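Let us begin with a simple case.
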Amino acid sequence: MSREVRRVPLTFDWPLRQVWQGYLMPERLREDPCPDCERGYTAAAEWLHTVAGRLGMVAEDIGEQRRGRPMHPWLAEDGYPPLNRTHRVARPTEDILDLVAGLTGEDRERPTHWLGSTGGGRIAVKIVKAAGLDPEVWGICPTCQGHGTVEKYPGQRAEADAWEWTEPPEGDGFQLWETVSEGSPISPVFPAPEGLASWMSSPAYTWGAVKTDADRPTYEAALRFIDAGWAPTFVSTPTTGVVSGVEWVGNREDGETR
């Protein structure tokens, strides 16, 4: 995500704050949703992935127990949970980690980490293979062949695969763009850097977090940013704290902030 200066024709009139058309695949190339599935799987496969995901959550609960945290509501509020001798939901025992590790091929302790992956998808694949079935075939929606979408006309998918985005035309003008989205212009086109710098240091510049005079770069800082051509959206340093990328680039001197 960033701000950058583009050189476009002085007559370039694409609407401000609207993603450039060359960055968006044409609607005619977008396929229709599959009428028989949501993600390219049959309903049986979706159930399998749900069960495999729950098995992964059971393994994750070992980590929650170690941290003294309650069981995830999806497990604790299950309609038919296993019960212990006091008729309460029985929390998993640590041997579940051995089972999940064997199914996923991952380290036994991985599910217990804060960002540990329990590999629900890999568990599902192992179950399919254990049944003697091909996971590339079983559970794949026959209507869309696993794409989750269907072509509006023959060859549409090939056309979409061949589509490439195009940059805006080049020219002598100077224009400020944002890349938080795919990319859109956020300033008028100016014939010289000084014009764009004046605009960026004026109340007309209100993009993103820039709302007040204190948020805007000075004319000099904006001019240095234009010379650099690019800045991240925000920068955080020990000396400046969190500042806009334009301000950071514009106030740098020999690689340091002033």
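The second case is a distinct protein. As before, the sequence precedes its structure tokens.
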Amino acid sequence: MKNIKIIKNRSDIGAGTRGADLGIDAMEIAAINMNNDFFNHIPFVDVKTHNETIYNKVNSSSAKRIKFVEEQCQRVSDAVKETLLNNETPIVLSGDHSSALGSISGIKAAMPKSRLGVIWIDAHADLNSPYTTPSGNIHGMPLAAALHQDNTEMQNNRPNDETISYWNKLKNLGTNFPKFEPEDLIFFGVRDTEEAEDVLIKRLNIKNYTVPEVRFRGISTCIKEAIERLWNCDKFYITFDVDSLDCDFVSKGTGTPVSFGFSPDEAKQLITGFLRTEKVVCLEVSEVNPLLDNKGNKMAETAFGVLDYTLKQKT
């Protein structure tokens, strides 16, 4: 990956707990404490946030702060699009994972004719919609929006008209159609899902490489197979949500920690394996929350370690 540009998106309004807005700063502190000048020699852009809206009254329990999340995703989309059109590679560092919709939309806006493959390294499927979400937190919805999947067959909420209007805007960011095909989406490490998501995963036949499968079959074998599945894609997008890591082994410094996840070394191998294809046009790291860290700044240190290692393999 050459001509890298960091996009710093300190937004956490799509999450259920506060603190992910400090994740980027925590990673920068981790770099300083490691005597690593990573953040000093790579150009960056700061994306304006709506974090002040956490004090506003929530008008939609099925999609909290959706108006501002839509605006935030549009900002991320614009930043990613501009970076790509300038022949730079965006490395998106985000607070909560709703930003992934912005990143994917920005790629499609810059490369509308390219077939996009999505590598989703996460403990969660993020396939809920305002019609199915049990929490109303939009960081659990970016893939549903990107795929235009309302999943009303599993509906348990009645979103109001305003929510539906902004949900449709979210789905149409960057392009007015799905950003990629379900067959071009591959999960790694997803292990904490709701019934509505399970139904959608089965219906769309989305491949999920679970942690036990990766360890039983071998990480190199799974990466090779995943690349073969995505080989007809022109470009790849990788998103690394740190809750894909084992919270008991690493730390609980993320909004929705889940046990039995990947080790940091496995995350490094996964990301590096896909970077070697030379098809990756955007890499995202999200959901570091230092306020929840039970081991000092461990999650930020780990996330930065993964990022620094993988980029050094390709720059």
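The mean pLDDT is 96. The first strand starts at residue 4 and ends at 9.
Keep these points in mind for the review questions at the end of the chapter.
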